[in-house]
Amino acid sequence: MALLNFRRKETPANEGADSPEVEAFLKDYSIEVMPRTAEKVEDFTALLPAGTRVYIAHIEGTPIEDMVATAKRLNDDGFNVMPHFPARIIKDRATLTDWIARYQGEADVEQALLLAGGVVTPHGDFSDSMQLMETGLFDKAGFKRLHVAGHPEGNRDIDTDGTRLKVDEALKWKNDFQTRTDAEMAIATQFAFEAQPIIEWADSLKHAGITLPVHIGIAGPAKLQTLIKFAIACGVGPSLKVLQKRAMDVTKLLLPYEPTDVVRELALHKAANPDFNVSHVHFFPLGGIKTNANWAIENGGASAQPAKPAT
């Protein structure tokens, strides 16, 4: 099985941009930005269709003012804005209340991705997303949708033994939270590069009774060196070994990575198994937002018809 596709010509014509399965799978994809990367995009409406869900990653040290300003800009442009709420960088309940109020009052935000966050030591009272959910503040504020993090290859920050016991137990808790509340929820995952482990992980959730739909993380087109750097920083699992092996080949090191193969394999699996619980694609634009958006357009995503012609 091909893990990575580095040359567009390796993808048969009838399985690439013209594939109805890929087009259906990419429908309503989402994408992630940060305030500093969003600043580099002059006009999002020239790249993404109105209504696209845009996550805003909250990296440690980013002022809440920058996060809210980015959310307001994107909301004003007609996008569904979903900022991150990293538990470990939120000092206390008062801070969380303030953030929610700012997002709602200034940017009309009504959905959020709740996660532990990438820092080791919590800055205050919260250490995981479940504690954020238990405050009841999102429900009180009328948030309509809450997404939580998923890890197809596990998370060694949580399960240091390399298993998925703790992360899977947390997903069961979050699944139960959905059943006893009015929250509309989904799992947004870390990116991965191989289809079969993703399929097996998603199936294992279903067998465990976890019914939350999965928005699978996919790394957008990027230089291999860039991808390896982000994969290390994000704690990507076995996929990292694949990238490092590829990097040993100088000819492939100089070629850009594109997620053609993994998206196509997942799309074909979804077409053959309509009850497959991966419902959406969530892009991490590691090689740039414009590059990722153009890849989606070229590969027939239904979300890829921009509101106006790109210039």
From TrEMBL:
Entry EC no(s): 1.5.1.20
Keywords noted in UniProt: Oxidoreductase
GO MF annotations in UniProt: methylenetetrahydrofolate reductase [NAD(P)H] activity
Protein name from the UniProt record: Methylenetetrahydrofolate reductase (NADPH)
